[in-house]
Amino acid sequence: MKNIKDIMTRARQENILIPALNVAYLPMTEPMIRAVADTDSFALIEVSRIDWRKFGAESQEAVYREYEKYACENSVRLHLDHVPVIDEDGKNVDYRSIISEALELGYDSVMIDASRLDLGGNIAATREIAEMAHTVNVPVESELGAVLGHEAGPIPPYEELFTSGKGFTDVDEAVRFVRESGCDWLSVAVGSIHGAVSGAAASQKKVTARIHQEHLKKLDDVLDVPLVLHGGSGIDLTHVREAVTHGICKMNIGTELRQIWETNVADGDEEKAVEALYQRVRAILEDELLISGSATRLLS
Predict the structure, then answer these.
(1) For residue range 45-77, what is the model confidence (pLDDT) as tens digits?
(2) Among 6, 38, 40, 81, which one carries the catalytic annotation?
(3) Residue 81 designated active-site
(4) Where does 4-292 sit in CATH, by number?
(5) What dihedral do alpha carbons 12, 20, 105, 296 form, nearest 10°?
(6) DSSP for 202-242, written as a single string
(7) Helix and strand tally (H, E) in the chain?
(8) Above 90 in pLDDT, residue 233?
């Protein structure tokens, strides 16, 4: 089975986007994998700590067991998304234990998010996890900058954020971070935002975000690792396609898929939800991201 690190490296070389689809509820796993396989696309199935704490993913072990039932090695790999050192509620997290369990279960890649620490703290935490994961040949994603949206309370208006560049990944810091942390992929802040995860806002449609292509290109020009875009739901598609030419190899899609599931199960009809999710993921892959056939290209 081809290692996900090699697949991501090839995606960067050939400007191919790998979508990462979040499992907010366990039954979402099967229709998402089926849609990926049916379009000959390649994607990551992923779960974050938020998904099992605030929604219905139950646990990272439960997601792993569900994934095992349907996994197709020619179409998908399993990624542990966002394990924070300090979470969205400002609380310290036992991130070492969570990531250690994922490695023991057999996740193909993991993410440590120490972006709420200062630069030195972020480097140290990421390096610790990279050393742990690399002993079992598992690549590590990390984040530098502030992709806002998960925190409680309102965030500044989007146009204000984009124009000011507030929270954008600093180019010089990124060079040092990649060199010293040992990360394999880097999640960068270049204009995208996360969907809200708390209160009434969790069900609201996200603002249509853009990507600051010039800033992204500056990062790509000096970094030698695949770049990751979080908060993929709702980003202008022309911006996504251009971003792929500037180093973005992986894009997380969570909020839209979760909301489709929640809307359709509200009346108790899970079969309807399964079909709606399958059709939406298929449309994203075929009609929006235009990556049908990417599995054949990446794994050949």
Answers:
(1) 999 999 999 999 999 999 999 999 999 999 999
(2) 81
(3) yes
(4) 3.20.20.70
(5) -60
(6) GGSPPP-B---HHHHHHHHHH--S-EEE---TTB-HHHHHH
(7) 13, 8
(8) no
